[in-house]
Amino acid sequence: MSRQKAAPLLILLLLSVVLASMLLACARPSTPPSYTLMPTAGQSPAPTLNATTTVPTTPSPSPLASPKPAAIVHLNLGDEPDSLDPARVDNQAGLNVVENLFLGLTHIDPQTGEVLPELARSWEPSENATVWTFRLREDVYWTRYEPENGAMEPLRHVTAADVVYALQRCLTMAEASEWTEQLYIIRNAAALHNSQASSPTIGLEDLGLAALDTYTVRFELERPAAYFPSILSLGVARPLPQEAIEEYGEQWGEPGYLWSNAAYTLQSWDHNVRLLLRKNPFHYRAENVQIELVDFVMLSDTGSSLEAYEKGDLDSVLLPGAGRELACWPQCEILNPILFEQLVIVALPCTYYYGFNTAHPPFDDVHVRRAFSQAIDRQTVIREILQDVHRPAHSFAAPGTWGTAVNNPEVGLFYDPQQAAAELALSDYADGDLPTITLVYNRSDWHQRVAEAIRQMWSQTLDVQIQLQSLPWESYMEALSTEIAAEEAPQVWRLGYCAHYPDQHNWLYDVFDPDEGTNRPRLSVEDPQVGAYVQEFGDLLQEAAQETTPLRQRELYQRAEHLLVYEIAAIAPIFYYNQIYASKPYLQRDYPVFGGIQIETWRLEP
């Protein structure tokens, strides 16, 4: 494909059409008009399932040699997988491969964030959601690909013992994945894992995990967790074959040694060059898997991967810099109108926000916090600083999260300069005597450009002086530590948050719960203005953790979101992260927000 340099105006117009439907969901019925930022000096303008869910089983298969592939998809992993061992893998390249080799007990719907059955055919919680019983499918096999002759055969069924072994192994490994901490909700899991660094004081028998029979496994948790089924979708929770790992040792993740139980098997792995996955004919949904061979290359340079895509060597590719440094987008010379027709805007499970120190004047006044949040013209920031890639945020949890409020216009705060001025008039600073505010961010040209734009909005709407301060990352994180006194901590600060699993608990509880969360805004039930709302916020999260009725749980989460962003106004959400893919018209695929890609559902059209 020849390269064509698209005119900036045409490109902006094309991209705005792609984004229009996404941005519409965040718009209010009546949005105040936005304005154009003045150029900076030296710069050109510019659900958890609770009830039993049953899925059908399939008859036992017979051994056969793998067929010659009729449908092949060519993709770029970007990096060499750091491992194909689910207990060790950390990078996205490895997660993308693991997702297609090993089944989780559960699977996350790529569109809704709903937890769906996968290896587990049903599950049931106890009344308070502290004990969970999972019943496995009885038609799932471990399969091994033989590189010498291309033959495959089913080795044995996947059982509850494989679940128990895998989690016990993960929690007792010296070098396990950073995702292992997500298993700490299981009773004594944290103590078992942490004791491995010293003298073990907790034994495997103390772990809240047991195989009740061949296809039934029970989990006992540290505390109520209605979100627990989403944890079991993670790579570190994938069942593993003990005999293969013990027999092959470090080789077990290599071709010819790896046992898989998902839609694909590992055919070959030329390290740092290419990795091939072949369709598993013994997969219980094999008749629905169209793509028979997955050809992964490893091009770490995104410019090279885009060039390969333009030449037809790749069928889908992540665009260079998408979702991160976007200074040249969409005027990048490498883009052209044909490519624009193949662009797909994809949500990331991440939110960019400003936090307020609620224990430090003037942000100890809720009216000041609301005023500053409502004075941010998020759409202008996205249009002029972020090149129309991301989506304006009015709540915390990003799209694709169960319980998110991204499409609920009744939750959170939106850009409204008139209301911002009205809120400020209700504060203790109604006479216009706001002190100089210091906005702190970690050192980055991108963060600085966003900060400069928002400083101009705050100055123009609220008539306040804003001082910007950037810090190196380590110093920045030290400054945000809740261990230091509130008066020494930044008044306003920037952070981005990316979730580990698709449930609001990971967003609201883990980040902001006043007792157990990180709580950088320093929420307190003793706050004279919003203490009652902080108490309600914490109570809602406790109730949601035990609520196993999905609709009721979503109501609880959305109320908690509104408390956080409006009633308490602890943060000012600015945008939900997106990234941009290009995919060939003949490839029908999805773009999961969480975890790795699951190619078994993809289709190649004629």
- Uncertain stretches of 5 or more adjacent residues: 1-68, 322-329
Mean pLDDT over the full residue set: 85
| Biggest sheet record | 7 strands, mixed
Beta-strand content: 15-25%
DSSP E strands, number:
23
Cα distance, first to last residue?
A: 20 Å
Q: Determine the structural class based on helices, strands and strand pairing.
A: alpha+beta
Describe the model:
- This protein is α+β, with helices and mostly antiparallel strands and 606 residues long.
- It is built from 16 helices and 23 strands.
- Strands 15, 16, 17, 18, 19, 20 and 21 form a seven-stranded mixed sheet that branches. Strands 1-8-7-11 form a four-stranded antiparallel sheet, with no helix packed on it. The protein has a four-stranded mixed sheet with strand order 2-14-13-12, with helices on one face.
- A hairpin with a 2-residue loop joins strand 9 and strand 10.
- The two termini are 20 Å apart.
- The N terminus is likely disordered.
Entry summary:
The protein is α+β, with helices and mostly antiparallel strands and 606 residues long.
Annotation keywords:
single chain; 606 residues; alpha+beta; 7-stranded mixed sheet; 4-stranded antiparallel sheet; 16 helices; 20% strand; disordered N terminus
How does the SSE layout of this entry go?
Blueprint: H1 8-24, E1 64-65, E2 72-76, H2 92-101, E3 106-108, E4 115-117, E5 120-125, E6 131-136, E7 141-146, E8 151-157, H3 160-172, H4 189-194, E9 209-213, E10 216-220, H5 228-231, H6 242-248, E11 259-260, E12 264-270, E13 274-279, E14 293-297, H7 302-310, E15 316-318, H8 337-340, E16 343-356, H9 366-374, H10 378-384, E17 391-392, H11 417-426, E18 437-442, H12 445-462, E19 466-471, H13 473-479, E20 492-498, H14 504-512, H15 531-546, H16 550-567, E21 571-583, E22 587-588, E23 603-604
Parallel strand pairs: 2-14, 18-19, 18-20
Antiparallel strand pairs: 1-8, 3-4, 5-6, 6-10, 7-8, 7-11, 9-10, 12-13, 13-14, 15-21, 16-20, 16-21, 17-21, 22-23
